[in-house]
Amino acid sequence: MALPAALILLSLPCSSFGLAAQRRRAVRRRASPTVAPEPSEAESRFGRQSYWDGVYADEAAFSWYCGWADVEPLWLELVPDRAARVLVPGVGNDDAAVGLVDAGFTSVAASDYAPEGVARARARLGDERADRVDLRVADARSLPYGDDAFDAVFEKGTLDAVFLSGGRDKALAYDQLRLCAAELARTVRRGGVVLSLSAPATEPIDRAFRECRSDGGGRCWKQLIDGDSFVTDDGFASINVDATILAWERL
Ligand SMILES: C[S@@+](CC[C@H](N)C(=O)[O-])C[C@H]1O[C@@H](n2cnc3c(N)ncnc32)[C@H](O)[C@@H]1O
Fold first, then answer.
1. Going by CA atoms, what residue is nearest to atom 3 of ligand 1?
2. φ and ψ at 147, to 5 degrees?
């Protein structure tokens, strides 16, 4: 015998109503981001791996926005423990990894998605330091490190370049930053920190960290430095750096 419609409704488990709401929420939530194909040269120069390989084939050393010495006092305030496990993604031919080793950091990993950038980083380090650094070709959107592998991350200009790899499609570009914020949330332990120096993509970088959510739905990151200028205890002024400084702690 067929049940009347009202009885069918009453006999449905409560969770059915919850499921409908969940489905509506899932529709509102953004789809999972994926790694974008390389943009054309006309769309984005700095967003292409081949561009960076070409730069590093020709150029032995260059530091975007500032040298390591300019940012070291701030870094040491954020990460005083020389035993901290540090990652420098997108190291290129900058001397951040050299500076970290010379400052006494004993566990340094540095990577770049451009193989020529890793070769330059190795040359900047020299044999003796390079033996003590985990140097790899790696894409910041899909890192080859384990969960909670790092206590601290120093990135300078890498997230800017990642944003530019989305080309003219700003939603796709933002998705590339979402991938990075999620990968850093996976590989940085709770209480660990990320220091970021950026210029063209500061706003979307800031948003990607603000909007990053862990599986349970909680925020991944608490902002420690929001781009305002400041002076550290030992007199370092952020106005010496030609970029905006952001920092977060992993929640
Ligand atoms: C503006 S340069 C900054 C280089 C260096 N960090 C500095 O401070 O001078 C951007 C760097 O990010 C690297 N890069 C861009 N997209 C990347 C990605 N998805 N994964 C890893 N490295 C990336 C580039 O190869 C390049 O070395």
1. 157
2. -60, 145
Nearest to 232 by CA among 70, 84, 93: 70
Tokens of 133: 């650094």
Residues with CB under 6 A from ligand 1: 52, 63-64, 89-92, 94, 112-114, 117, 139-141, 156-158, 160-162, 165
Helices 49-58, 115-130: crossing angle, 10 deg rounding: 50
Give the distance (Å) from ligand 1 centre to CA of residue 29: 30
Tokens of 236: 């370092």
Q: Tell me the pLDDT tens digit for each residue of 203-247.
A: 999 999 999 999 999 999 999 999 987 777 777 776 678 999 999
pLDDT digits (tens, 9 = 90+) for 3-34: 444 444 334 433 434 545 554 554 445 688 99
CB burial of residue 90 (10 Å; 0-12, 13-18, 19+)? buried
pTM: 0.89
